Predict the 3D structure of the following.
Amino acid sequence: MDVSRARAPGLLLPLTAAACAVALVAGCSGGGGTPAPERSTQAAAPLAANDLEDDYKAVIKNVLPSVVQIDATESLGSGVVYGDKGHIVTNAHVVGREKSFTVTAATGGQPVTAQLVSSYPEQDLAVIKMDSLPQGLKPARFGDSAAVDMGQIVLAMGSPLGLSGSVTQGIVSATGRTVSEGQTGGGTGATIANMVQTSAAINPGNSGGALVNLDSEVIGIPTLAAVDPEMGGGSAAGIGFAIPASMVRTIADQIVKDGKVTDSGRAALNITGRTVLSDDYEPAGVAVVEAPADGAAGRAGLKPGDVITRLGDTDITTITSLSEALASLRPGDEVTVTYVRGTATRKTEVTLGEM
């Protein structure tokens, strides 16, 4: 299954999601006890549904003033108010190569202009800053990524297909996903670890918006939606991915403070490589094109022409598989790299560097 970005209208077929609240109340008794009256069950279900509906409304009221629509020359996406100085965090693929943007609050009002502070395509995150502070906007509260768990109810807020201030509902389907983004249509090609998978509908234009829990906390930035090649590239409904709040804070804090990312926290071999094919024209490894002597691979003895076939216990067949294997590791970790030099298969211990 491939993964596509959720950004400008028309790049993806619409995803669909149904939101419903169902409450089941079971009555039981032991021995010769009397079952609970049937009317108790009937009364409890609407009550529970109404409570959940009230929760949704409260979250939307709390968080929507922290969500904006971002218009660039050739793209449209969403963003989240980050702090009280006019900063907006969004996806790098939303800003693209643009430097100036028009920002509109999800709750309405006059658009304002904004300028790029810095973009970090390697994690598909960026920060822009508004030239003036519109009334009604407020900083978002970011949640604890460690507390995010499967089954949690979440809401996705943004501007799908340009419909500003839209909200969809779902659950956290999984955590800890490592997903690689394509480079077609302006994608960054980023490989992102620890993503939150959700069933909340994420449509083109949702990118950079907010994935929110019922405590009105942003737990992720919706970024990708899955597409199924067997459907001709059509959307695989209910499979979307969001960058976790912990990584958003790590990157955004550095950009706000220093104007750029100074510590990515992401492991690297510090090589330039390319995918090589076997005699059967199947991906068979990553050939080292460059390995600077002061880089992680270079210090471990890897040279141009070597073909990496394994990283630790993970088989490496393509550049993407190498990126995904590295995404779960940290700078300073030691890992065994298996490679082919000439006709000989060799191994070396590499202390990973930083991207």
Residues 7-39 have pLDDT under 50 and may be disordered. The chain is about 15% helix and 40% strand. Residues 267-354 form a domain with the Pdz3 Domain fold (CATH 2.30.42.10).
